[in-house]
Amino acid sequence: MHNPQLNKHGELAHLLSIEGLPKAILNQILDTAESFMEVSAREVKKVPLLRGKSVFNLFFENSTRTRTTFEIAAKRLSADVINLDINKSSTAKGETLLDTIDNLCAMHANLFVVRHASSGAPYLIAEHLQRTGRDDIHVVNAGDGRHAHPTQGLLDMYTIRHYKKDFTQLRVAIVGDILHSRVARSDIHALTTLGVPEVRAIGPETLLPKYMDKLGVHVFHDMNEGLKDCDVIIMLRLQNERMNGALLPSAGEYFRHYGLTPQKLALAKPDAIVMHPGPMNRGVEIHSAVADGAQAVILPQVTFGIAVRMAVMSIVAGN
Amino acid sequence: MNIEIKNGRVIDPKHGVDQHHTSLFVAEGTVIGMGATPAGFVADQTIDATGCVVCPGLIDLGARLNSIEAELAAAVAGGVTSVVVPPDADPPLDEPELADRLVHRGDEIGKARVLPLGALTLGLKGERLAELAGLKKAGCVAFSQANKPVVDTEALLRAMEYAATFDFAVWLQPQDYWLSRNGIAHEGEVASRLGLAGIPVAAETIAIGTIIQLVRITGCRVHLTRISSAAGMQLVHRAQHDGLPITCDVGVHHLLLTENDIGYFNPHARFCPPLRAQEDRQALSDSVAAGWAAICSDHTPVGADDKLLPFGEAKPGATGLEVLLPLTLKWAEAAQVDLPTALARITAMPARVLGSSAGSLAVGTNADICVFDPAATWQLAPEALKSRGKNSPWQGYMMSGQVRATLVGGRMVYQAQQ
Amino acid sequence: MSPLPNPLPDAEAQCRQLADLIRRQLSKNPALVGIYSGGAWIAERLKDLLGLTEEVGLIDVSFYRDDFSEKGLHPQCRPTVIPFDVEGRHIILVDDVLYTGRTTRAAINELFDYGRPAAVELAVLADRGGRELPVAATYGIWDVTLDDGQSLVLERKDDAQLAWRLEHA
C-alpha cells in the first residue's frame, strides 16, 4: 500500500503518523531539531527558511497550547501564520472539511497544521491534495482523534535522546489513559522504530486498548510492577470527562493506583526521567512533588517541542 | 412472447441441474422447458448464450433503493430479479400506505421485483409496534429493524410474540445497542492501532444470544441479517442445529474483506456491521460454503460527499447490486466453491429464506432468469455503474463475470450492449 | 584564472599560505567562522597554525539557503555554533571554494542574526569564478577554471589531512 506521507522519492511530504516512517526519517527530524534548538537561543530567534510561505493552523478541535507551539515554530521559520478556529466558522455553515481545504488552497496555503477530533482526518486531506495534484501543499498532523500526535511523539523522542542518548538500552513506561491517547500511540510507534527494547503500558483494563501486544507493548495493571527499573516514565493526561463514570470510579481512586508519587517513582531507576505531554492534572495522574521534582523534564519537553516542530515544518515544506 | 435462450450452461442449483450447451424455453412469462424444443414452440426472440451461464435471477436479501429508478435498473444490470428492501428509508417503511406506494412504484418501473420489509416498530424506534398485518397486506414480506437494534428487550419480545401470532417472519441485524453505539470499526488490532472506537464481537454474540432465547420463547421465525463474526456464526449454526426456525445471511463484502482493508482510514471500508478479523472472514466463508448462510449485497448507495469524510464520520456501506454476482464469483474462486453451489447462495437459498418459489428454473416457475458471461471482465468505475451509489472499496478493480441479459417474468428487462 | 593543474595542489600547503595572509591582521583580534564542512576544517587548521586560543565558530547555512523552494532542506544539517559574541567583532568567514557567492551571502545573513559585527572578511582556498553575486574573497590562494560539470571537493582523510578531489557531475 502506498504510504501517503512520502513523496515519490520516499521523502517526507506530510507528517501524518509516526507509524510507517523509517528510522532514518525520524533521526533526520531529531537531528534537524538539534540545529533549531540553537536558533532559539540566538539574539534573533528566526531563520528565513519559510519566508513568503503561508502556514494555516486548522484547529477543528480547541487546543490553545498546541496551536501556540506550532505558531511560534512557524514564525521562527519566517512563515506567515494564519490561525483558523474552524469550530466557530465554516463547518457551522455546513461547509465540508474538503471544501474548507480547497478554499484555503485558493488562498495559496503552503502548509496545513491540522488538529481534528476524528482519527484519520489529516489522511483525508493529504489524499485529497494528492488526488487534485497539489503536491506542493503539505500537511502536518497536530493530533487526530485517538489516532496520532506525531510531533508530540517526536518531541518526546527528542527529550529521551537528549537525556538518555541511546534508545537501544531503555525501558520506557507509558502510564494512564492509553485507550484515548493519540500521544501514546505515536510514542509507541516511535519508541519501537528507534529500537527501544522494552515499552510498557500501565493502566487499568478500561483505559488500555485491546491487542497491545500486537504493537509490541508489554501490559501492566500494577504500577509498582510496571515502573520497576524503568529509565523513562511518560505520564498521560486523564481527561476530566473520564474521571467519574464507567471507566473509572473517581479521580481519587485513580490517583491511589496510577498516580505517580515520589514513592512509586523510587521504584524506577534512580536516574529515570518523568515526562508529561501537558497540561497536567496535579493530584490526579501526578503528584506535585514529582511534577516539580528533579527528575521531571516536562518544561524542557515544551522547549524541545518548538525545535521539533520547526524541523518537521521545514522538512515537509521542502519536499 | 416466446423466448429461447440457446447454447448456454444452464444451472439450476435448487434442482441440481448443470447442463452445458443447452436451451431454456420461456413462454407466457414462465419456464416451459429445457433441452429439446417443446412441441409447437416457435421462438419470437432468441438469446445466444454461447459461453454464458443461464441461471435463476439473483435474489438480493438486502438492498436500499434510495433513488428507486436508478437502483432497480442497477439490480437487473447485476442479474438481480428480486430485491428485499429494508425499512430504513426516509421516512421509514412503517405505514401500509408507504409500503403500498413502494410496491406500486416498483411495478411501474417494471425492472426487478420489489419485496419490502416492513418496519417492526414505528419509526424503527424500537418502542411501539407498527401495523404488521396492514403492512403485510400492502406487500411486505417480513418485518425488520434494518440495522437499528431494539434496545428494550421487552419491546423485542412483544414484537416477536405479535409477529408469531400471524406467522410473520422477523428479520434482525444482531447488534447490541450499548456495545455498538459509539463504535466505528471492529474492536481488533487495526482499531487499536488507528485509534478507532471499537465494536466488539460481543456486540453481535450478545444480541444473537438474546434473539435465540426469544425465538425459543415465542417460536417466531427469525432471519438474522449480516452476520459478521465467527463466534456469531457459531451461535446461529447451533440454534439451527437445535431446530430453531432461524436463517441468516452474510454481506458479500464481509466474505472478501477484513479490518485490514481499512488501510489508511479508507472510508469505503466502513461497514455496518464492521469488517472483522481475518479469522472471522474465514469462518463466514466456510459457513456460507457449508450452506449455513445466504449471501446478500447489502447494497447501500452513499453519495460521494458522505464518503469524503474522516473514517468515523463517513456513512457506512457500499454499492452492491451490480457487484453481487462478480464478488460472489470471486469468493467462490478463492474459497474453491463450485459455481452451482455459489449461485445457490444468491438464488435458491435466499428464496428459501423468503419462503418463495423463485430462485429456480423448474418448469412452470416465473421466468426470472440471469444470463451472464463468467469469463468477461470489466472495470469497476463510476461510469460503469447504473446505481447512483458509486461508493465501493473495489473502485478501479477488475471484476470477472458480466451479465448479458436479465428476464423478469419472461420479459427482457436488461440486455447488455454488445 | 588558470587551468586545472595535475596533480591537484596540496591543500595543507594552501592552508599554511592562507594562515600567512591572515597573520598580518591578528592585531584586529579576528574571530574565525568556518562554513560546513570544508570551511570548518580549514578554520580549525587556521586556528592551530595561527596559535589562536579562542574556539572557532561553525556555520551550517542550510536554514539560510536561497534554493530551499527548489531543493528542500539539506537532509543532514548540523547546528551552527558561534561560541563568542558577534557584536562588534572582526570576523573572518572561512570556506573551501568560492563559486556563485550564494553560500557566502547565506553565511553573512546568518552571522548577522547573532549581532552586528565590526567587519566581515572572507578567506578561501580556491576561487573558481562564476560569481552570481557581488562577492569577493579578502584572502584567496588559488584561482582556478573548471568546466560546468566539474566540482572541487575538499576531503578530510583518515589521518586528518586535507586534500582536494575533483568530482564530475
UniProtKB/TrEMBL annotation, chain A:
It holds the Pfam family OTCace. Residues 14-161 form the Aspartate/ornithine carbamoyltransferase carbamoyl-P binding domain. SUPFAM superfamilies: Aspartate/ornithine carbamoyltransferase (SSF53671). Its EC number is 2.1.3.2. The keyword Nucleotide-binding does not apply. GO terms for molecular function: amino acid binding; aspartate carbamoyltransferase activity. L-aspartate binds at residues 93, 182, 237. Residues 169-315 form the Aspartate/ornithine carbamoyltransferase Asp/Orn-binding domain. InterPro entries: Asp/Orn_carbamoyltranf_P-bd, Asp/Orn_carbamoylTrfase, Asp/Orn_carbamoylTrfase_sf, Asp_carbamoyltransf, Asp_carbamoyltransf_Asp/Orn-bd. One of its GO terms (biological process) is 'de novo' UMP biosynthetic process. Keywords: Pyrimidine biosynthesis, Transferase. GO terms for cellular component: cytosol. It is an enzyme of class 2 (transferase). It catalyses: carbamoyl phosphate + L-aspartate = N-carbamoyl-L-aspartate + phosphate + H(+). Pathway: Pyrimidine metabolism; UMP biosynthesis via de novo pathway; (S)-dihydroorotate from bicarbonate: step 2/3. Signal peptide: none annotated. Carbamoyl phosphate binds at residues 65-66, 115, 149, 152, 278-279. Catalyzes the condensation of carbamoyl phosphate and aspartate to form carbamoyl aspartate and inorganic phosphate, the committed step in the de novo pyrimidine nucleotide biosynthesis pathway. Belongs to the aspartate/ornithine carbamoyltransferase superfamily. ATCase family. Heterododecamer (2C3:3R2) of six catalytic PyrB chains organized as two trimers (C3), and six regulatory PyrI chains organized as three dimers (R2). This is Aspartate carbamoyltransferase. It comes from Dechloromonas agitata. The lineage of its organism: Bacteria, Pseudomonadati, Pseudomonadota, Betaproteobacteria, Rhodocyclales. The gene is pyrB.
UniProtKB/TrEMBL annotation, chain C:
Its EC number is 2.4.2.9. The keyword Transferase applies. Residues 9-137 form the Phosphoribosyltransferase domain. It comes from Dechloromonas agitata. InterPro entries: PRTase-like, PRTase_dom, PyrR_bifunctional. One of its GO terms (molecular function) is uracil phosphoribosyltransferase activity. The keyword NAD does not apply. The lineage of its organism: Bacteria, Pseudomonadati, Pseudomonadota, Betaproteobacteria, Rhodocyclales. Keywords: Glycosyltransferase, Transferase. This is Bifunctional pyr operon transcriptional regulator/uracil phosphoribosyltransferase PyrR. The gene is pyrR.
